[in-house]
Design brief:
The protein is an alpha/beta fold. The chain has a seven-stranded mixed beta sheet with strand order 2-1-3-7-4-5-6. Helix 2 packs across helix 3 and helix 4 crosses helix 5. The two termini are about 15 Å apart.
Length: about 220
Amino acid sequence: MAKVSVYNMEGKEVGTMDLNDAVFGVEVNEHLVHMAVVQYLANKRQGTQKAKTRSEVSGGGRKPWRQKGTGHARQGSIRAPQWKGGGVVFAPVPRDYSFKINKKEKRAALRSALTSRVQGNKLIVLDELKLDTIKTKEFRKVLSNLNVNKALVVTGTIDNNLYLSARNLPDVKTSYVTIEAAGEAKEIKSNINVYNIMKYDTLVLTKDAVANIEEVYA
């Protein structure tokens, strides 16, 4: 079981924490991580590109000149692909690029990504991360105390002050993993993904985020 240091918002070590090997200590499957990243990027594509084929371009309903006797190569339409203003050969059309991967594969990819951050010493755990006001300067100060620049910050609650404070920082993204009681069941809300975990240099987790991740993905 991996043991990591726990820091406060001033960047001082205040304790240690054991990480669950079922989530943060698995064998890294690079293929699943790659597939999860490709799926994320593919699902974000709009697929709205469009160009006209020769059958969709207006005009060209008659033969530009007779078949023989002109000295020109034979032509059937001025909207053929070789003509200026003609249609496009194999023109792109609107399409859906998204595809699905199995739920177990997606969870395994996420565990592999989290493990890779632990193995690469790119995981920082905070005891808490709370901002009383919406202040980008204060949030940047916290990152400076942790000696972090490009980071994915994950909390165990949905914190609007934190989200708005980090929104203007180009190299920082905030996410959350929350577990709320919904009667006898539990409602899980999470927006973390493999792409963002691998994209940012450092993964910053609060202690409650670690607990929620271990409960959801173990």
